[in-house]
Amino acid sequence: MSDFRLSPHAFQDIDSISKHIAQGNLDAADRLRDEFFDAFEKLAEIPGIGHLRKDLAAEPLRFWLVYSSYLVIYKPDSHPLEIVRVLHSARDIKNLL
Asked: Among residues 92, 85, 82, which one has the least CA distance to residue 2?
């Protein structure tokens, strides 16, 4: 198991996303949550695979797309890997960071 940790914002993001999806489909919410944690594991193993987005964040954060709609935003040089936020790609990412 790779090391990662969720920031309080990331934990809250996942909780909110899961609750929203679960209103319509509990199984889909569970699958999405599993996909998030699979992505966190993969990113902790290979933190350089995400994309830098200097247009969205002044600090060196990387972005990884999960389930074609959600961005996992993380600090690639942190140990354990810090998951900063998990946000739907349609949201105003720059202002939320």
From this structure: 82
- The candidate with the shortest Cα–Cα distance to 50, out of 85, 75, 16, is 75
CATH number, domain containing residue 51: 3.30.2310.20
Residue with tokens 């594991």: 41
pLDDT in tens, the chain (97 residues): 569 999 999 999 999 999 999 999 999 999 999 999 999 999 999 999 999 999 999 889 999 999 889 999 999 999 999 999 999 999 999 999 9
Give the count of beta carbons closer than 10 Å to the beta carbon of residue 78.
15
Domain around 38: 4-96
Query: Domain tally for the chain?
Result: 1
- β-strand partners of 83: 6, 74
